[in-house]
Amino acid sequence: MSPRKIIIDTDPGQDDAVAILLALASPEEIDLLSITCVAGNVPLELTARNARMVCELAGRTDVKVFAGCDRPMGRDLVTAEHVHGKTGLDGPTLPDPQMPLQDGHAVEFLVETLRQEPARSVTLVPIGPLTNIATAFRKAPEVIERVQEIVLMGGAYFQVGNVTPAAEFNIYVDPQAADIVFSSGVPLTVMPLDVTHQVLVTGPRNGAIRAIGTPVAKAVAEMTAFFERYDREKYGSDGAPLHDPCTIAYLIQPDLFSGRYVNVEIETTSELTLGMTVADWWGVSDRAPNATFMGSADADGFFSLLTERLSRL
């Protein structure tokens, strides 16, 4: 089987960086057409910088990186420096990127790529706020039916929220964009907090990555060591959840995850629950299913895959 064509839409973020590295380490399964950047964990200038730093860390200066939307569709930008540090990639010391950003806006690239590639041959992998994807769908609605699938990190059901009592960060930053994407009719696979909080970088797991001994592995170990301080303090967990790499791991080895095909709606108006992913996990409404909402992960299998792939870089 030929590798799956994907575009990663991202706001790096330490866990975003690991997702990008996992994709770059997996050419048999993943054909990374480009990386499009969005404002989220940190402002757009930094997310576009961080994406290029990660590509250079992996020795992949050929990857096309585009800058996209610098704010949500209908509200002020909310960022997460308290989690990711002031640069978004605090932890390792990485050199400033030398590879340039591509000319043009990420939304234009998304639209033109979906128009030019064979219909339903490109999978979108948004691991930040959904602003770029929704803006592309609003600008050129004819491309919606050309998307093979969207595999995204966002939302929660049993875990509820991590930035408000009701909402996960990626959805909360731009709930209007999330509503557009979840209402689009594109096949959706969702990696919510319910899954990502099962995939923890414990001391032994981080030690196994560090023991690879390469610059990539060292940087990843330093990223997760920085990242975990927030989650240990907040949740009392054994380590940091690697949210975003779950999307790439699913594309490589889908049997690591299981979930249900359910209806998921996005709350866009309530002050109390803005950005909540209202997942009909128990099928109590008459709303039609629109997303495969994952509920469990094989954490050991995930880290075996991640460690093996990182050793390739």
Task: Give a verbal description of the structure.
There is one protein chain. The chain is of the alpha/beta class and 313 residues long. It has twelve helices and twelve strands. The strands form three sheets. An eight-stranded mixed sheet has the order 3-2-1-4-5-6-12-9, sandwiched between helices. A two-stranded antiparallel ribbon has the order 7-8. The longest helix has 21 residues. The chain is globular and about 50 Å long.
Number of helices: 12
Instruction: Encode the helix/strand succession as letters.
Output: EHEHEHHEHEHHEHEHHEHEEEEH
Distance from first to last alpha carbon: 23 Å
Mean pLDDT value: 96
> Could you tell me the strand content as a percent range?
15-25%
Low-confidence stretches: none
| Helix content, binned percent | 25-40%
Which shape, going by the Cα principal axes?
globular
Topology, number of strands: 12
Rg on CA atoms, Å: 18 Å
Biggest sheet: strands side by side, in what order? Answer: 3-2-1-4-5-6-12-9
Question: Largest beta sheet, briefly?
Answer: 8 strands, mixed
Structural class: alpha/beta
Question: Nutshell version of this structure?
Answer:
This protein has helices spanning 14-24, 44-57, 81-84, 106-116, 131-139, 169-173, 175-182, 193-196, 203-210, 215-235, 245-252, 299-310, and strands spanning 4-10, 30-37, 65-67, 122-126, 147-153, 188-191, 200-201, 240-241, 257-262, 264-266, 277-279, 291-297. 37% of the residues lie in helices and 18% in strands. The strands form 3 sheets. The protein has an 8-stranded mixed β-sheet with strand order 3-2-1-4-5-6-12-9, with helices on both faces. The chain has a two-stranded antiparallel sheet with strand order 7-8.
